[in-house]
Specification:
single chain, 150 residues, alpha+beta, 2 domains, 6 helices
Length: 150
């Protein structure tokens, strides 16, 4: 899911365990100014403890609606690739988080115009581009590992 941090500083927030719920892999969330992507599970653990920050408008859950197609209901977008190209490009221009930008480049469903905007933003911010791993590469690695063990 997408959230926007509206302060000109980095915000670290601890993930607090919730009884009966799985814990995210991370123990804290790091938000940089602008748009950040976090998992739904991280949000579930974070949201109850940041009500004051949400109320102040410093942290906003981006709930842009995405078209689902003719005859289908409109739903809330959870990933950049689910937004219209114009809305996604607008959010990319407000993003400085290297993890989010690099993560979006690995999304095969990303519109080409949005992918180009992400690449331009990475260059503009002089961020080191992370290697993009595909599902095919991961499957090939798994097969190689299995054959070596046998």
């Amino acid at each position: 899911m997408l959230v926007q941090w509206n302060k000109e500083c980095i915000k670290h927030m601890s993930i607090v365990p919730i009884e009966g719920k799985a814990m995210p892999k991370k123990s804290f969330i790091r938000l940089l100014p602008g748009v950040n992507e976090i998992s739904e599970l991280e949000w579930e653990h974070l949201a109850p403890h940041v009500k004051d920050v949400l109320a102040s408008g410093d942290l906003i859950k981006i709930e842009a609606k995405t078209p689902s197609g003719p005859g289908k209901p409109v739903r809330t977008a959870e990933k950049l690739s689910e937004l219209t190209a114009n809305k996604a490009i607008e959010l990319v221009k407000n993003t400085v988080n290297p993890d989010s930008l690099n993560g979006w480049l690995g999304d095969a469903k990303l519109d080409k115009r949005v992918a180009l905007a992400v690449e331009e933003r990475i260059k503009e911010l002089k961020i080191e581009r992370a290697p993009i791993e595909s599902a095919e590469t991961d499957e090939a690695d798994d097969e190689n590992t299995k054959s070596k063990k046998a």
